[in-house]
Amino acid sequence: MDQPRKHEQYDALIAACRAGMRLRTAVVHPCDESSLIGAVNAATLGLIEPVLVGPEARIRAMAEGLHVDLGSLQVVDMPHSHAAAEKAVQMARAGEVYALMKGSLHTDELMAEVTRKEGGLRTARRMSHVYIMDVPTYPKPLFITDAAINISPTLEDKADIVQNAIELALALRIERPKVAILAAIETISSRIPSTIDAAALCKMAERGQISGGILDGPLALDNAISHEAAMVKHINSAVAGEADILLVPDLEAGNMLAKELSFLANADAAGIVLGARVPIILTSRADNLRTRLASCAVAALYACALRGTVKV
Question: In this structure, which long-range contacts are made by residues 282-286, counting pairs with CB atoms below 8 Å and at least 24 apart in sequence?
C-alpha cells in the first residue's frame, strides 16, 4: 500500500511565490503570538511585506516578549481592533496595500468593515471563501468553497462562488480547473434543491455565464474524488475522480468537510476570501506555520493576477 505523501503542495506554492515580488499586506490587529509570528515569518521568507495595523505599544511589547525582531516593519498605530480593521480597509481602498490578513480579531469584525456598502471593499462579484486543502492522500490541491462566508447561497451566489474559485485556480496555474458540484446523490431530484442548482450551474457554464473551468454535477463526494467510485456508478464525466474544486451546497456542509479532512486525513487548510478589491487572508489560531505561509503565498499569487481585472 502506498504511503500518504507529505505536504508537498504547499511547499510548491510557497516556492512559486518566493520567485515573485513581496505582496504589501495589512495585518489587522496582530496582537497574539500566532498572528504576529506568522506575519514576521512570511516576511522573512519573502512572501509578503507586512504592515502591522493595531496598538503599536502592545505589538512591540509582545514582539519583545517573544524575542521577535520587527526590524523595519511598518506599524500603523490604532487603538483597538475595530479601528485597525477600519484603517486596513481604508489602506486597501487607497492602494497602499494589496491584501489584508486577519490577526487576533474576530472574522466578523474584519468582514463587517470589508463588506460595508460605503467605504468597504465590495465589487460587482459576491465575496466567498476558498479553502486550498493539502490532503496527503489526494494528488493535487483540493479547493473547497464556500465554507466560511455564505451560509445558504442562492443559485446566483453559487455562480459567483464558482467563478471566484476558478479564477483563483487559474492564478495558481491550474489550467481548466475541474469543478465538482456536490450533492448527496448523482441524479437530479426536485426533492434535493442542491441537485437542481448543480444542473443549472452546468448549463450556465455551457452558455458562457461561468467561464474558465469544467463543471459537472450533481456529484457525490466519492464520485468527485475517486475514479473507482465513479466507475462503479457508471458516471462518464471529465470531472469525476479528477476534481480540483468542490462546490458545497452550503456553509455547514463545507465547514464539516474541511474539518473532517483536517482532523481525520491530516490535511492542511489554507484559506482566503475572494471577490473583494483585494484578497483577504483568514487565519485561525489553530493554523500551523505551514498553513499560514501557504495562505500568504496563495494571496500573493492571486493578487498578481487580480490587479487591473476587477470591476468595481
Answer: 282/102, 282/107, 282/129, 282/148, 283/34, 283/35, 283/38, 283/101, 283/102, 285/32, 285/34, 285/104
Spatial CA neighbour of 268 closest among 63, 8, 68, 1? 8
Q: The cell 489602506 sits on which residue?
A: 91
* Strand bridging mode 178-182 / 245-247: parallel
Alpha carbons 201 and 209: distance in angstroms, whole number:
9
The model's confidence at residue 1, banded by pLDDT at 50, 70 and 90, is very low
Q: Rounded CA gap, 217 and 11, in Å?
A: 31
Between 81-93 and 107-114, two packed helices, what is the crossing angle to 10 degrees? 40
Of 220, 238, 266, nearest in space to 7 by CA = 266
**Exposed, middle or buried, 215 (CB in 10 Å: 0-12/13-18/19+)?**
buried
- Helix (DSSP H) and strand (DSSP E) numbers for the chain: 11, 11
pLDDT (tens digit per residue) in 162-181 = 999 999 999 988 999 999 99
Q: All domains of the chain, ordered by start, with CATH?
A: 1-123+276-312 (3.40.50.10950), 124-271 (3.40.718.10)
Q: How far apart are CA 205 and CA 28, in angstroms?
A: 37
What is the pLDDT at residue 81?
95
Quote the pTM value: 0.90
Burial label for 134, CB within 10 Å (0-12, 13-18, 19+), is buried
Q: Which residues lie closer than 8 Å to 202 by C-beta, 6 or more apart?
A: 181, 215, 216, 217
Question: Given this model, what pLDDT does residue 18 score?
Answer: 65
The residue with cell 520567485 is 19
Query: What pLDDT digit, counting tens, does each position of 246-274 carry?
Result: 999 999 999 999 999 999 998 988 999 99
Residue with the three cell numbers 458545497: 248
